[in-house]
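User: Can you model how ribulose-5-phosphate sits in this protein?
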Amino acid sequence: MTQDELKQAVAEAALAHVVEGRLVGVGTGSTARLFIEALAGIKDRITGAVASSEDTRRRLEGHGIRVYDLNDVTDLPVYIDGADEITAEMHMIKGGGGALTREKIVSAVAQKFVCIVDASKYVDVLGRFPLPVEVIPMARAQVARELTRLGGRPVLREGFVTDNGNIILDVHGLQIVDPVALESEIDHLAGVVTNGLFARRAANVCLMGTDKGVITLS
Ligand code: 5RP
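Assistant: Here's the modeled complex, given as structure tokens:
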């Protein structure tokens, strides 16, 4: 199977985690886009959705799915999103699409995080994929120095501005053996909005597309 076929399979499998008559949190990226297409087929069975990016909001609304402001939501049973890397502990790197901050906010509200990936995203140690860090523009140079001090090689994502008006530094060369500690350490640097480690808010379930079918890790 191709990577796109594996993504399609997990996007469809994720529908089983959507709760009838309730809201669903929706992630960003190519796998999340396939999930939105699948969700459109059952839109009459949900109240609506909460979007993790402007791109996702536009796509959901394009399918006639009502998108709620997170501030009006107190109960979100499930958040469904892809990842750039995931481990057996359900720790993830996210933010390849640059939506990491809103993804982290929406997933923090959700009771359950269902991660949908093809098998290429599964790793023993996080860090082969460059870690995205969203930064307030005036702090770019200072945060880059601090990330270098932590052993990484930060590279500005050229020509990219997040939905929140900030920049992304993609940090190469990290071997992330303690993702919970590193997530906190980077988040505490002055000028950092969010980093793409999802370790404190790990996934609860991972649907992984493999050549043998979709397997569930939890
Ligand atoms: C976007 C993300 C995506 O979930 C991540 O980049 C995976 O994307 P894809 O499904 O296209 O492989 O975190 O900010």
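A couple of observations from the model: The pocket of ribulose-5-phosphate is lined by residues 27-31, 81-84, 94-100, 103 (CB under 6 Å). The radius of gyration is 17 Å.
User: Helpful, thanks.
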